Every structure is written in structure tokens, then in C-alpha cells.
Amino acid sequence: MSATSVLAGRHSSVQRTPDLTALARLLHLSAGVLRTIERSDGRYFRFRASGSAGGLFPLGLYVAARGVAGLADAVYWFDPLNHALVNVGPAPQGEATSLVVTGVPWRTGWRWTPSSEHCAS
Question: How many domains does the chain have?
Fold first, then answer.
């Protein structure tokens, strides 16, 4: 399905639930850590799939999983540093699996005040 179709409100008549491999790939390529290097001071620098002002990453990803083979129905937070799903709640109502993007304004607020409200809005 093209981005234009999605933005226009059209959708495919074919509906399918992603398998765990496809879901893992989607999460990794949208918000995961793609590469890690060790700095001379012993600290690690992680290159993420999505950019972030100041490397503060104010966006969080959650999966409301329903019917994903190999994954219990529940709500999960995507932990990008460990490439893991952390169960944070019971299964949602309905039958569709959904990806939820949340903004955490305080991650940028302390550094970018007063413009921080626009960074994760």
C-alpha cells in the first residue's frame, strides 16, 4: 500500500496480521539501534534508525498485539537498546494489531526549553 493511499484514507481489502519476524523487522528499522561503536572513553555511541534532536529520542513505540504468531496477545513497549518487547499490559480489545507512537516531552523539555513543546508534539 502506498503512503499516498494511506494518507487519502484508502486501505487494502486484504488484511493480514504480521508474523513476529515481520514485526521485529518493522520495529528495528523504524526505531531500533542499527549500529553501536565504543568511544575512546569507554562509553558507547548508538546509531538509531530514527533521528532525534540532541540524541534524546522523545518518541516511544508500543505494539498492541492481537493474533501475532509467536507472541502472546498483550500491549508491549519496544525496548530499542535490547531489541525486545516488554509486556506492559493486557491484550487490547478488537482483533487488529496496532503500532502506537507516543511522545515523551520531558525527554527534550529540560534541554530545549522553551521550544521543547514542539519537539515531541
Answer: 1
